[in-house]
């Protein structure tokens, strides 16, 4: 660190400079040394010229996901017609002069984008427009994720962590995993954290507390209008007292109807209002998802991730289904077991599982075309 940078944090009077260096400076120097000594991790973001990635890339590059001492190499992947836009994004990232950002690559070649990557955030997909059903996206999008799965299988690290965001996210993740046979199934996930965040925020508004006072909301199943947002096991802290959300809300009709429907259709509501799909909130949810996968979840807290079903809660095996999970410091998630499922919840969970089975069947057929 330069002498001028050090001097601006020192009192000009008193003992010699060496004796009056502040703990701030020592900590700052330690952090700089740690950043310099750490190997960068390689992070690929697909759909990198799009609106979600525009928010996401900056968050990744400045340390919101992997920590303030972890350098990153950003590998930005998009289709050939978007390369001009992507070069502009690359220039902006460079112009941010971020200390953690070591390298920025813009490419339309999946084998370049996924080369030796540690984390892949698969954001790019044909976008859903107002009035378009999610199933309409299947035929085109599963072929994209088949190709990306094959490329990941060929060139990515076998420890790569993959989160699929492009819709239909659960089924796209299922197809991607199928065509990346050398990478463990548990390394693939789909994003339902946006739905969890929506549920958490809605409960917080209803109860009159900050969003972070609400814990352990669950999203079961598909990232679609059949998802089941569940607060039966969620808690809220209000007036220094922890209680169940059910107790705090005191409105069973709201919990089973307005709350569920609003969370299920929030994405469509955003599209109707903005004429574009969620971007800022989606980028924030991706940051939350990957950060927790990377560092782990706090004791007593779980998060929602769509992961490969192992039959927990009588869900069909082989689907990418959203469950509550805990995550340890070695990036390993565990589906939370032993939660009581009432008849209302079971019915909702079965509906979303059936949709996922139907989507998977259609996707498998499309992959053969």
UniProtKB/TrEMBL annotation:
<dbReference type="GO" id="GO:0006108">
    <property type="term" value="P:malate metabolic process"/>
</dbReference>
<feature type="active site" description="Proton acceptor">
    <location>
        <position position="223"/>
    </location>
</feature>
<dbReference type="GO" id="GO:0006099">
    <property type="term" value="P:tricarboxylic acid cycle"/>
</dbReference>
<feature type="binding site">
    <location>
        <position position="128"/>
    </location>
    <ligand>
        <name>substrate</name>
    </ligand>
</feature>
<feature type="binding site">
    <location>
        <begin position="165"/>
        <end position="167"/>
    </location>
    <ligand>
        <name>NAD(+)</name>
    </ligand>
</feature>
<dbReference type="InterPro" id="IPR001557">
    <property type="entry name" value="L-lactate/malate_DH"/>
</dbReference>
<dbReference type="InterPro" id="IPR001252">
    <property type="entry name" value="Malate_DH_AS"/>
</dbReference>
<feature type="binding site">
    <location>
        <position position="198"/>
    </location>
    <ligand>
        <name>substrate</name>
    </ligand>
</feature>
<keyword id="KW-0816">Tricarboxylic acid cycle</keyword>
<dbReference type="InterPro" id="IPR015955">
    <property type="entry name" value="Lactate_DH/Glyco_Ohase_4_C"/>
</dbReference>
<feature type="domain" description="Lactate/malate dehydrogenase C-terminal">
    <location>
        <begin position="192"/>
        <end position="363"/>
    </location>
</feature>
<dbReference type="InterPro" id="IPR010945">
    <property type="entry name" value="Malate_DH_type2"/>
</dbReference>
<dbReference type="InterPro" id="IPR011274">
    <property type="entry name" value="Malate_DH_NAD-dep_euk"/>
</dbReference>
<feature type="binding site">
    <location>
        <position position="78"/>
    </location>
    <ligand>
        <name>NAD(+)</name>
    </ligand>
</feature>
<feature type="binding site">
    <location>
        <position position="167"/>
    </location>
    <ligand>
        <name>substrate</name>
    </ligand>
</feature>
<feature type="binding site">
    <location>
        <position position="134"/>
    </location>
    <ligand>
        <name>substrate</name>
    </ligand>
</feature>
<feature type="region of interest" description="Disordered">
    <location>
        <begin position="1"/>
        <end position="20"/>
    </location>
</feature>
<comment type="similarity">
    <text>Belongs to the LDH/MDH superfamily. MDH type 2 family.</text>
</comment>
<dbReference type="InterPro" id="IPR022383">
    <property type="entry name" value="Lactate/malate_DH_C"/>
</dbReference>
<keyword id="KW-0560">Oxidoreductase</keyword>
<dbReference type="Pfam" id="PF00056">
    <property type="entry name" value="Ldh_1_N"/>
</dbReference>
<dbReference type="InterPro" id="IPR036291">
    <property type="entry name" value="NAD(P)-bd_dom_sf"/>
</dbReference>
<protein>
    <recommendedName>
        <fullName>Malate dehydrogenase</fullName>
        <ecNumber>1.1.1.37</ecNumber>
    </recommendedName>
</protein>
<feature type="domain" description="Lactate/malate dehydrogenase N-terminal">
    <location>
        <begin position="42"/>
        <end position="188"/>
    </location>
</feature>
<dbReference type="InterPro" id="IPR001236">
    <property type="entry name" value="Lactate/malate_DH_N"/>
</dbReference>
<feature type="binding site">
    <location>
        <position position="141"/>
    </location>
    <ligand>
        <name>NAD(+)</name>
    </ligand>
</feature>
<dbReference type="Pfam" id="PF02866">
    <property type="entry name" value="Ldh_1_C"/>
</dbReference>
<dbReference type="GO" id="GO:0030060">
    <property type="term" value="F:L-malate dehydrogenase (NAD+) activity"/>
</dbReference>
<keyword id="KW-0520">NAD</keyword>
């Amino acid at each position: 660190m330069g002498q001028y940078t050090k001097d601006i944090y020192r009192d000009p009077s008193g003992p010699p400079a060496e004796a009056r260096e502040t703990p701030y400076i020592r900590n700052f120097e330690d952090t700089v040394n740690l950043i310099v000594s750490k190997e960068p991790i390689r992070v690929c973001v697909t759909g990198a010229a799009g609106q979600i990635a525009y928010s996401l890339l900056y968050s990744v590059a400045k340390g919101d996901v992997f920590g303030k001492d972890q350098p990153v190499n950003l590998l930005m992947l998009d289709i050939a017609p978007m390369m001009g836009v992507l070069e502009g994004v690359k220039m902006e990232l460079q112009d941010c002069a971020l200390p953690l950002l070591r390298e920025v690559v813009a490419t339309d070649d999946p084998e370049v984008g996924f080369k030796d990557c540690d984390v892949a955030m698969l954001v790019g997909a044909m976008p859903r427009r107002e009035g378009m059903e999610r199933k309409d996206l299947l035929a085109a999008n599963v072929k994209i994720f088949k190709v990306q799965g094959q490329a990941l299988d060929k060139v990515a690290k076998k420890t790569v962590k993959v989160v699929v965001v492009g819709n239909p996210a659960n089924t796209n993740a299922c197809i991607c995993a199928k065509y990346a046979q050398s990478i463990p199934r548990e390394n693939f996930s789909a994003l339902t954290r946006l739905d969890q965040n929506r549920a958490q925020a809605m409960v917080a508004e209803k109860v009159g507390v900050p969003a972070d006072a609400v814990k352990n909301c669950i999203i079961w199943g598909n990232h679609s209008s059949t998802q089941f947002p569940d607060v039966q096991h969620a808690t809220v802290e209000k007036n220094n007292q922890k209680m169940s959300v059910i107790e705090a809300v005191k409105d069973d009709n709201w919990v089973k109807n307005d709350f569920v429907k609003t969370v299920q259709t929030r994405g469509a509501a955003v599209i109707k209002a903005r004429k574009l799909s969620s971007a800022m909130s989606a980028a924030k949810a991706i940051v939350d998802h990957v950060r927790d996968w990377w560092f782990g979840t706090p004791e007593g807290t779980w998060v929602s991730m769509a992961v490969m079903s192992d039959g927990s809660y009588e869900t069909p095996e082989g689907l990418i289904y959203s469950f509550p999970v805990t995550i340890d410091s070695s990036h390993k998630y565990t589906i939370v077991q032993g939660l009581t499922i009432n008849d209302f919840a079971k019915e909702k969970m079965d509906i979303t599982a059936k949709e996922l089975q139907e989507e998977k069947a259609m996707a498998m057929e499309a992959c053969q075309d």
